[in-house]
């Protein structure tokens, strides 16, 4: 944190939270009336600690049953309240939360930091134990069991064809007025002695996209579909009806990547500089 | 498997099973009337598959709540029944078992292989997430949560003093007529970003020994006891009353070490040779 820069904003300070959860007993991230959700649990605890309604914004709104090791969220809290509990903040938050969600770290963030809009990339993993044994018992809540051996070489080849910027309408649950153009930056497969693990990084994902991609790729891994089949559905105009959506418990949000603190600050300074230029309104909003 | 050697014995064949389980919903390994146990579950399934009562012998009789990644057991089954299902054996066993116990491998073993008595060493791990955060939610069933930071350097020094052959009566639940002399072969500590992991290998362990050792060592890690304290209880004549037994869920049986197949065979051949010598009775049982 740069002490020369004010981080409070009208008495509020922005916190960045790094969060992990076991999705099994959550109805996903997003708050819903009468259902247990990660956002709902966290906002309730924060409200209790800060005596304030504190809406939480996250990087990846995970579905019901999906896990997270590296979810990131931000919230604005009264600076004086935070300073009172800062030293014991992490301990108090985790003590108040149930064991299936943990705040791994909490820190005062740059006021320009936005967990959702500052994120450069999200990384998800999907684990499948393919074969007679299934997942190790201690890992069974986060690894899908698949009865037959999958051809991971074919799946990796099919994944390579998905790299880059495409319209993923074929793999997404449609939402009105929302773009489904995304850029897959990397897509790798690793076989351990226990399971196959796919790791996919994109600027962002649309709804159920990773699980749909995995559904298409496992069809290739089973030999039911050719290697080119998943990529053939890129830039489709509607959701592919024959792509199964794999179960949520194999999926984990692993990591969210942000610009460095220095880059964030530089960007903020740059924005500020532009706002101080007399031609700012013209250059940004165009002529009137 | 050496095809020159008969592996069946009166129509029976010896199987070696490598087994993993999540101990949470088991009342330990050992069969008990009306309780769910690992041995009870496995023997029931094997009885169902082989139409035979098949007592199972394991390397480490874990307590209620203790996990295993590398448990080993043996059993004798009718050779003809095994040959019938061999190709699908692993798949059928695991399909019949609940997801919290898995047979990782099943193979025909040398008739001299004994899961308990052939074992050269057992390795257990104990995991403790010490600090404000606690275990990652997906690992919370196998990692103990400890609210304060432990001094792992002091704990490692205290562990070093436990190496070698000692009478561990001070750390064991006493059993009549059973020796409590054991040899600790290695005792290491590793700190990951998430937890502290102790890994301890001995020829064998007596009842609740690892959890008692961990109780003594965490007292050192907290600074409540000096580094020499755990070793001062070696060769005691009764159980130390001020050693807490840590909870079972942090404990996992990781690995059992056996002589190689060649060593087992050599030992068996050696035994056979001695039995064929005319002076065998004298040399083994002494003079009459």
- The count of DSSP E runs of length 2 or more, i.e. the number of strands of chain A, is 11
Average pLDDT score of chain A: 88
SS strand fraction of chain A: 25-35%
Query: Helical amount among residues of chain A, as a percent range?
Result: 25-40%
Oligomerization state: homodimer
Report the C-alpha radius of gyration of chain A, rounded.
21 Å
Fill in the CATH topology of the largest domain in chain A.
Alpha-Beta Plaits
Which regions of chain A contain 5 or more consecutive residues with pLDDT less than 50? 1-9, 277-288
Please, how many domains of chain A? 2
Sketch the major β-sheet of chain A: 11 strands, mixed
Largest interface: A-B, 27 and 27 residues
Number of helices of chain A: 8
At CATH level 2, the architecture of the largest domain in chain A is: 2-Layer Sandwich
The ordered H/E elements of chain A are EEHEEHHEEEHEEEHHEHH
Shape of chain A: globular
């Amino acid at each position: 944190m740069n002490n020369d820069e004010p981080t409070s904003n009208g008495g509020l300070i922005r916190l960045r939270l790094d969060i992990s959860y076991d999705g099994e007993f959550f109805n996903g991230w997003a708050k819903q009336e009468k259902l247990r959700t990660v956002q709902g649990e966290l906002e309730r605890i924060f409200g209790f600690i800060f005596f304030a309604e504190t809406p939480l914004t996250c990087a990846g709104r995970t579905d019901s049953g999906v896990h997270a090791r590296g979810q990131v969220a931000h919230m604005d809290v009264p600076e004086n309240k935070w300073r009172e509990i800062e030293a014991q903040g992490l301990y108090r938050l985790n003590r108040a939360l149930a064991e299936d969600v943990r705040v791994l770290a909490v820190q005062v963030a740059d006021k320009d930091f936005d967990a959702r809009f500052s994120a450069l990339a999200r990384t998800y993993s999907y684990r499948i134990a393919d074969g007679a044994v299934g997942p190790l018992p201690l890992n069974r809540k986060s690894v899908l069991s698949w009865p037959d051996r999958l051809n991971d070489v074919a799946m990796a080849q099919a994944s390579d064809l998905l790299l880059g910027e495409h319209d993923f309408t074929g793999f997404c649950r449609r939402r009105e007025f929302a773009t489904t153009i995304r850029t897959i930056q990397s897509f790798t497969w690793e076989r351990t002695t226990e399971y196959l693990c796919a790791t996919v990084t994109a600027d962002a994902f649309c709804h159920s996209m990773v699980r749909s991609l995995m559904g298409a790729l496992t069809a290739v891994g089973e030999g039911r579909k050719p290697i080119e089949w998943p990529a053939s559905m890129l830039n489709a105009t509607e959701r592919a009806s024959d792509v199964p959506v794999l179960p949520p418990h194999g999926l984990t949000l692993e990591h969210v990547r942000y610009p460095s603190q220095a880059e964030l600050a530089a960007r903020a300074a740059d924005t500020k500089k532009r706002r101080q230029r007399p031609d700012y309104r013209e250059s940004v909003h165009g002529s009137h």
